[in-house]
Amino acid sequence: MALFTGKGDGGTTKAFGCDQQRISKASELPEALGALDELNAFLGLVKMRAGDVPRIKDAVRNIQEQLFIVQAEVAGSDKRLAEGAVAAVETFVNDIEKEIPPIKSFSLAGGTELSAMLDVARTLSRRAERRVIAAVEVGARDLAPETRAYLNRLSSLLFALARLANHLAGVAEENPKY
């Protein structure tokens, strides 16, 4: 099987569930799928950098698995996140919050490299969520409520993991000086 077909050279693509009609690569659906793919790829780098922090590495691996299911649903597959996926994220975030100092202010991204990378992943997850919602709003896809909720919670999970990475490394959060 070839890695390329040349059929997209004119700026169109096909997505699962689109009756094999070609659509613009710049339309909402490919934008949503691309943003999810970008996030998942970046999380691969985050996972490799979290090699010495198994808890974070395992959490990122789990997020990647969940994102593949989300990507499949957005592409038109009948795959769906398992019932309870959102509750599992909420429980994990709540457990992290019990371990780290409470938030008193906004904080500057950084501290450790791993924390900074998780903050970048958080912003990528927000962009992916916006792109997916845009595809839903134009009628390109209809998503399960669990998927919408998962995408909304994902940035909170990544933020909690970023804070945890700094906490585990003994690095205090730095607040902006307005």
TrEMBL record:
InterPro entries in UniProt: CblAdoTrfase-like (IPR016030), CblAdoTrfase-like_sf (IPR036451), PduO-typ (IPR029499)
SUPFAM superfamilies, per the entry: Cobalamin adenosyltransferase-like
UniProt entry keywords in alphabetical sequence: ATP-binding, Cobalamin biosynthesis, Nucleotide-binding, Transferase
Record Pfam families: Cob_adeno_trans
Database matches in Gene3D superfamilies: Cobalamin adenosyltransferase-like
Source domain of life: Bacteria
Reactions catalysed according to its record: 2 cob(II)alamin + reduced [electron-transfer flavoprotein] + 2 ATP = 2 adenosylcob(III)alamin + 2 triphosphate + oxidized [electron-transfer flavoprotein] + 3 H(+); 2 cob(II)yrinate a,c diamide + reduced [electron-transfer flavoprotein] + 2 ATP = 2 adenosylcob(III)yrinate a,c-diamide + 2 triphosphate + oxidized [electron-transfer flavoprotein] + 3 H(+)
Pathway: Cofactor biosynthesis; adenosylcobalamin biosynthesis; adenosylcobalamin from cob(II)yrinate a,c-diamide: step 2/7
Molecular-function GO term, any one: corrinoid adenosyltransferase activity
UniProt entry tagged with the keyword Repeat: no
PANTHER family: CORRINOID ADENOSYLTRANSFERASE (PTHR12213), CORRINOID ADENOSYLTRANSFERASE MMAB (PTHR12213:SF0)
Family of the protein in this entry: Belongs to the Cob(I)alamin adenosyltransferase family.
Protein name listed in UniProt: Corrinoid adenosyltransferase
Provenance organism: Candidatus Kaiserbacteria bacterium CG10_big_fil_rev_8_21_14_0_10_56_12
